[in-house]
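Researcher: Here's the sequence for the chain we discussed earlier.
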Amino acid sequence: MMSILFQPVTHIMSTEILRGSPDMLVREAAQRMSERRCSSILVVDESDRALGIWTETDAVRPEIFEAGAAPLRLADVMTSPVATLPPETTVQDAVVMFHDKRIRHALVAADHLPLGILSMTDIIRHQGSDSFLGLRRLDTVSMPSPCILDGTVDINDAVVQMRTQGRDAVVVRLSAATYGILTQRDVVRLMAQGQLAGPLSTVCSRSLKAVCGRTTLADARNLLLAHQIRHLGVLDGDGELVGLVGFSDILHSIEQAFLLELHQMLFERDRALSESQHSLMLAETVFESTMEGILITNGDGVIESVNPAFTRITGYHPDEVVGKVPGVLSSGKQAPEFRSHFWRCLRHDGRWQGEIINRHKDGSLYTAHLSVTAVVGEGDIHRHYVGVFSDITQSKQTEARLKFLASHDALTGLANRMLFTECLQESLECAAAGDLRLALMYIDLDRFKLLNDTLGLKAGDELLTRVADTLQDLMPEGSLIGRLASDEFVVLIPEVESVQQVACHAQALLSALSGDTVVAGHEVFVSASIGISLYPDDGRSAQHLLGNADAAMIRAKECGKNTFQFYAGDMNAHALERLSLESALRRGLAQNELELWYQPKVDLASGELCGAEALIRWRHPQRGLVPPDEFIPIAEDSSLIIAIGEWVLHTACRQLRRWRDADLRAGRIAVNVSGRQFKYGGIVETVRQTLQTHGLPSECLELEVTESVAMDEGEAMTGVLRQLQQLGVYLSIDDFGTGYSSLSYLKRLPVHGLKIDRSFIMDLHKDSDDVAITRAIISIAHSLGLDLVAEGVERPEQRDFLVAHGCQSGQGYFYSRPMPAEAFEQLLRHRRLALS
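Model: Thanks. This is the structure I predict for it:
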């Protein structure tokens, strides 16, 4: 695996040593380290002998920050003596020393003169375990939750946190969704610049590079090396920062692989010992101190001597086995032909090696790795046999456990995706040969994420194990059950006779899963959605059957959940069309196919224009204008909405700047902002930079956020809205009345206006319910001191009602349809002429 482990440290050490004298001031040392991007400085005397070392880790020690104005020398703060390695030390021995001494740097020296510095980074850079690291993901690495500090925290307090918590970096929260990072290297840099005071937001690295938890350790390591950084943020499935991974975490993650390498070393040592058994018998020290059990027999197989490790492993003292044959250890678990094969190998080859199950003196069984070698005397006669063995019971159990976990879900014990897919494909091949029908059920728990987020992972795990037990109890004999992901289960039912039979199984499963239950002490309602595909009707490969069952499950969700759906052919067609449209939308954004249209807002009482709403349109090369309700949901699902939202904001502000320069009074321009922009798009900074770029006053821009987003995001959304309010941007809640507003929460939102949804306006002239709802919304807005805009005004009766009840502004076809920017500009020019 890691051939570098066997090489001397001189092959990977850094020969460019940064040196300093004991009298060098700490700040000067920090300056030199910062300039060279070096993580340590070696303190030497006039003869170049190492006196100590000062590293980035030492930079956060308390004496540096408690010294006040007194200048410190390296002699005052260095680590001494320096951990030193001879040049012939192997990398594996260096790793052991780093682990045992909890250090990250060591000096490589000969005759007390420095040759180079070996760091943890050097080991990671050269360890050559891509194949192993490629099999593990970040979300499998045990890491503490990141230490997250607010940007207002003082640097000194942050250093105290790093020191007391044993952290080499802290995360700095710059805004609701923006993070920076302060590392030990940053502390050295700040020390060099004399900036060890002030808030973190002014000195930290402004952008923390983050990756999802599904990223492999190999990719994480390559990112760290490529960007010359030491830490990556780790995001969960919702994009929340849950961890901070660095070089040390990756080194820790290759520990198991390192143990395998050591096991190979032991094997090589056994072989070397077997090839020189005569010398081994003469080496009494090795015989007495080795951790492997050794027994020596004469040519007839009678035990002559054993070492102390033999007694420790087997429980038998020497006087209990000397003079007997090794059969005293036999467990009787070997195959009948084992003995004859064993002696045939010894007589023919002079050696035998393998695993054997023996019995301890107390009766317990253990697995031993045994090597037996014949010691040949004169005339090629076998004078002695030397057996060397070690107890590998625990490693065998670990190996079996790892093998199980490689193909099974650790929580439920069910087959994982890899094993299930392999077994499914084998079942399909058997079914094809026997002309049989199979059914595949794809089961997804409804609202599981809400339960998991609300009650915690322990409650979620409890529910998942119950579901697994229910599946195993209810499904017919011979069924294959697997867990593919968080709350996604699959069941393969063999030899299906009819669709009705499968439907009965699905309904029985829904009935068993659906209902109120107690999880982690809380009563919750549980239900599931099931998608079903059939072989050979819906696919002849494992991939197709799984994909089609998944599509059917999604249809079951869309049909209201707590139901099952059989696959229908148009489901994939719909999915492919959606995928194609997403690809075309990405291209359209890159090739300037998007347009901004503008719908005027007017004062309802006077009919005067008071602003406009910017509305996006997509002019597809073949399809022409694509309605927003077709591509905006796709943009939301694929995260394209962030890039599109920024384009809309910049385009609207650029156009408004041009109109203002032409003395065309467009009023306030409203731009819709999605929830994803608020959560992940850094909306506050984007708006600030956009206004600054186009030289616009903030009061000329209005941002519209939907009612559901404003209510769902809680305090995080309120914080972002307050920051936008401080910029001077006008804020309004779009589609008001269509969600589930909490009025107590609404009054705390820092917004200026409400937009009455068009669904209440369109039948205002004939529907008493819409009249009552609209009156209520107007009353709420007046009570909270909020402005009102009515959408979808298409009839004079609607306008008259709104004016009579105190709604100030409106927009809709009664006044104007949305129009391209050129047409809206002409409208502004005619309006200027009319007023002049």
